[in-house]
Predict the structure.
Amino acid sequence: MKTKNSFAILRKILFLIMALSVIFACKKDDNTPPAPVNPIVGTYTFIASTFNDPITVIVNGDTNHYVAGDDAYLFVGGGLLGAAPCDNADNAALDLRANFTSFYVCLGESNEAQQGTWSINEENTILKLNISNPANFPVFITNLDLTDNKLTGNIPSLPMPYDTSIPVGDPLPGGGFNFQAANVTVEFLKVE
């Protein structure tokens, strides 16, 4: 009889030891720090842009010549955030997510749409937006700097129209295609 009780007690002790080892093993996993998130992850509003090189654009039938330092906000903002599904276009923002997807989001609204994906070099100095909505094209932002929630950089080759009344890439009436590349600086404000 003593042997049966001894085995029963021994089994209970072994079960208790196994249960405690499982609990402690799980507890160690809970203390594992999460993988670091790139500091670029966040939601950004577009706040400014200037041309770095001269460019000519036809707007409402008028030929406009821009020089380095001229405001490019309307052209760049429309090019980068024009496809955002916002009820109010002023609410459009860019959301760079930790899973390397980029979304058009609308601040204060529930509307959003995937813009594409993003990647960044090891030094965090070149951001690549792989835009797939409204069209497929990459945008490289070089000399990237994120300081005090302000993201600045240079887009050396942003697709732009010659004539804003014709979609980018469509044929022009006199021949050629409605496409040119603009060299611009950009500024975004990190809001989330």
Summary: The mean pLDDT is 85.
